[in-house]
């Protein structure tokens, strides 16, 4: 194991794990004391939802890589139909993700 490239990846993985794992444990320890209906937790949920929507919007309207070569109507249509499936499935996020990705892949394959 004298390969310097391998050691670089090992150091990155360990440092990344240490940097994020501390915050996860603190979240578990401190999160047990929060009331699920508290304003603080509602704010955290709102911020998390806003961040997810911002990333999703960026991927749909300002794509990079393979998505940049797909038409806007395909990206917006896949997202819209995925959202309808999300609502029909009782607000299950996995349904939205699977339907949206499946439609996007099908559309890309047909182009």
UniProtKB/TrEMBL annotation:
InterPro entries attached to this UniProt entry: Brnchd-chn_aa_trnsp_AzlD
Transmembrane segments: 6-31, 43-61, 81-108
Record key words, sorted: Membrane, Transmembrane, Transmembrane helix
Domain of life (superkingdom): Bacteria
Entry annotated with the keyword Transmembrane: yes
Protein name (record): AzlD domain-containing protein
